[in-house]
From TrEMBL:
One of its GO terms (cellular component) is transferase complex. WD repeats lie at residues 618-659, 660-701, 702-743, 869-910, 913-954, 996-1039, 1039-1080, 1081-1113, 1122-1163. The keyword Hydrolase does not apply. The lineage of its organism: Eukaryota, Fungi, Dikarya, Basidiomycota, Agaricomycotina. Signal peptide: none annotated. It comes from Lentinula raphanica. The keyword Lipoprotein does not apply. This is WD40-repeat-containing domain protein.
Amino acid sequence: MKTTNQTLRVELLSRAQIELVDSLPHAQARYDAASRSSASSCLEGTRVELLRTIREWVHTNDVQKPRIFWLCGLAGTGKSTIAQTIAEELDTSHTLGATFFFSRNSAECSNALLVFSTIARQLALAIPEFGARIAEAIEANRDAGKLVMNAQLEKLIIEPLRSVTNPPDQTVIVIDALDECSDRKLAQDILILFAGKICTLPFPLTIFITSRSEMHIKSKFDTPILRPISRPFILHDIEQSIVGGDIELYLRQKMKEIGEASLIEKEWPSNEAIIILRDRARGLFIYAATAVKFVADEFVDNPKDQLNIILNRTVSSDQSSPFADIDKLYLQVLESSLPQGGQLNLTLIQRFQEIVGTIVLLMDPLPLAALEDFLGVASGTAHSALKFLHSLIVVPKSSTEPIHIIHPSFHDFLVEHGRCPDHRFALDAPLHHERLAVRCLEIMIFHLKRNICGLDDTTQLNREVENLAALRSRFIPAHLIYACSYWGLHLSKSRPSPTSDHLLMLLRQFVDSKLLYWLEVLSLQNIMDAALPAIGHAQVWYSISSDTDETSALLNDVQRFTVEFFEPIKEGAGQIYHSALCLSPPCTLTTQYKLEIMQGISFIKGGQHTWGPCLRAMPGHKGMINSISCSPDGKFLVSGSCDRTIRVWDAVSGSTLATLMGHTQYVRYAEFSPDGERIISASDDKTIRVWEPTTGANFHILSGHEASVYTAKFSPDGTLILSASIDKSVRVWNSETGQVLAILQGDYSILDASFDPLAQAVVVGDTGGRVALWNWQHDMTSSFIHCHANGVTKVHFNHDGTQIASCSYDRTATVITTSGNVLCTMHCPGTSAARFYDAVFSADQTHIWTSDHFMRCWNIGTGEAEVSFNTQGGAIKSLAFFPGHQQVALGMIDNSVRIWDIDLAISTNTIDEDDHKEGIQQLLLSQDSQYVISTSYDGTARIWNMENGSLIHILNHPIGSHVLCVCLDKDGSQIASGADKLICIWTASGTYVATLEGHTSSVLAVSFSPTQDHLASGAGGDDNTLRIWNLQDQTTLWICSHQGAVMCLLYSPDGSNVVTGSTDSVVRMWDPSTGTEAKLMHEHITWVTAIACSPDGRFLAAGSYDGMIIVWNFAGEIIKTCSGHTDRISYLVFTADSLGIISRSMDHTIHFWSISSSTVDNAIPHFNLQTTPASAIVDIQGWLRMYSPNGTSRRLCWIPPNFRPSSVGDCYDAITKSIIIGNQSGKVLIIRIMLEEDS
């Protein structure tokens, strides 16, 4: 980095700010980076007119000038040299903001995901005020540099720049060789993102871009978003005489310097020689530069002889290719590198193919020593082979800098068919990739082992390991990192052949013994994103090369294994063994690697028997998913959420590609256009937006509706947009211009609408329960063809437009013809609260898929459900089938997107009849830890054996009831359960005893008196009372009114008081013998959600919705106020000695409090874990944590999303050392935890 400008600017930032800025992920892609030490700028006197044009563009103050200057040209025409020159000049004049010089020679410098964070880092150092703003942004979000591209640009560049109060007069960003970006789509995204944002800035930020004139880049500059703000300049359109003159000037100057350095006579080289070289260059500066480097080779004593080698060859007869002469020059350089005048020497040619071929085809260049280690050759071998090739290949003197080719055209010369006529040098790329794949596998098989870095504590996450960087450097050499990163890619670029037997054998050996250790290295090196693509490449290659066998089964298993446990493995390499293997179902992988399985975590009940149909669970949204849509090619998903955002997902990896922000209220709908190039969204903010999918650029913001827009869909050909709103109107728009073409005004709010396959008619569903057809292109008439008993939420045509599926708030879905004939009506099973959210035709149009809490497939002919399975995430708001209908994406009410395999769902749909059919509402552990009771919306309470997980009893309540609460009496002989308005009494053996009736709304809490002959119950809704019951005759003794729902209650240890907590924020003490109110405590400001009494009867604790805990004595005096939780308190318990409190919260944490202290305690005297179930919890990231008496927690393992607790949480049994989880699918899981100290 230059000290003249950037260092002075950096000094204006504080050390803390500099550290924050430096923490951003970045590439060494500055114009003056050490890796670019060989880069040169334009020779004085050359490129005069072109540089003048660029300088005029830079310094023009006209606000209407194009913000982007695009310099494009053929390979070798000097684009990078021009960019280097411009960057140097801008830096000198203090107008350079940042540079990113792409290079296919470097993985980081070809990585589009590093572009915006790298530019932001440089801008922060160039503009001190911007640096301060970006430091604030990083402080607010330490992962800002890891966000998707559009969010990086917005959060790290655009928002900080907008907040700069004293912006510079001019700031230019230079991006060179955009065509060398490794991902063409992302290269396009960079252009679109910049185009959509830079014009919104209050000061002129301009961008100078160079690239080859490749179609994926050229096509974007021809789009409406880039064309008005860019100035293209075609380099190879410059008059040849001008370019030739510049090349001639360059050759004369450089040859003069060589002659002077070598003490050659001044007349050398001749004017004729210069003219020959100029003409052979044919406008390609790379020809002149390569010729100069060849003549000046430091390992050759006589530059004259070197020049004569070039001059004495015959002129290429093929003048049709612009690269004919540069190709001939490359060949001359290669031939001259061989001894004996280039005579054939098989050993030398093999060495060339091995070393130079590897350098050319490596995905990321390696330093000299690492290259020799990778190839398995003796030290010095590579250096010797490259001795006479320094005009083509950069061989740094530093041992840490990578070797790389000077110009991409040399790669093209060796690899492209027909470019290199000499078979000794031409590379058979697929064959060489096979050799590289072999070397990668050999290296991994030799080096990989469990706990490769020798970590003392493998339960630690990677970020928690002290000196991890030093350990990685010591134990994971560079050539092993390369092998782990790119073996799959080399495999995919090879071609199966008879010579592949060795590769096949190595792949089997690697899969059989090293797969998990490979994942370890990827985790430790923070390159887990390489895992799934590599496995995918291996699966495809192996399926071509071999029959299905155990290796293919292992590859399939490790693919599911990696998807299921990607997050914990990425966080910590040791989680492969502590979480993933322990919680995987029995399969080929767990059998093959059974010795690696940690014995501390095991399922007693609820584990998977095989890989489930849920291929991916994708969290990320902060609100429920309202819609999900699949791209036409099946590669991407788009979701719209109540968190006001739209997310674009990679359907293979499950990663978020973009978060589209702009709507100010709930996003009701989002879908891809038929060509996949746009996304449309509808929102409660009354607008429709059309987006570029990955960049978030807005093509249109359509306004006109006067209320929430519930849907916006493209016509099948993408030329029209259909929108429906609760303002009672449906609109048709031109998708290109945004013009309204037609409006239908109805009598009711419109909840959904869809085009027919020809976009000639529209089907509409409204809140009046009506399904109507609107012939908008013909007579503009509408007709009602069906009527539900309540609002119609979804309407869809089948593929040929002859049938319509609809679903309604009336709990039915129907299939009707366009003339209104009802083909079938489907009724949603379950409670009165259950309803269908979506209804979609099957691929063959003979069935309908519906979603409620289950996915169901109905036969249209019979109206019967043929398939039904629980997706284990609560209600399914939206369905989207992938092409082929083998997989389906689900938009869930639990804020997640899930992808399910339909065939696997059907084949594994063996519902455990023991489990609940609806979500778990409460878990209660018996005092002797012999059993646990679960309650559910399915109208049952179930009793489970804690030793083996078996079902002991089912307590059936009235059909359709919701069992919301349960309690045990003091000796565990009686059970009371609240089911809607009723309370049922049972024996512990499951025998029904009595039903207590009297409440007029749902019973939310029950508690036995210490004497076991009375019961207290609390209700909500329109009831809001505490009732005291006599269990002898099942009569109500007292009714005690509240101002809100009674959320929690219990008897004091001596039975003299009943304590209640209510949504009116008041804690009350009641005398159960008289039903009178003894005390009121008003100190809470939100709902009271949990209550506990100390065993000695001296203290009372209550927790509220806001996470506050207050402790009183029974005189009503406040003893302590405890602040620390950030969400609702779900459970409170005192320690056995009454000196401490353990609290559990919906913020997924457990806190320990001392009665005598005002803060969270680190050590509670005499605390005994055996006395409380609140010592383990699944935290918000899914980690199962064990809490110790000193207040610290220990991470045990990661729980997959499908197994995580519902809102009732989970509980821990210290006696059996088990955590019990109840989830939204109705499943109860018992996980046994055996720590090392327990064995």
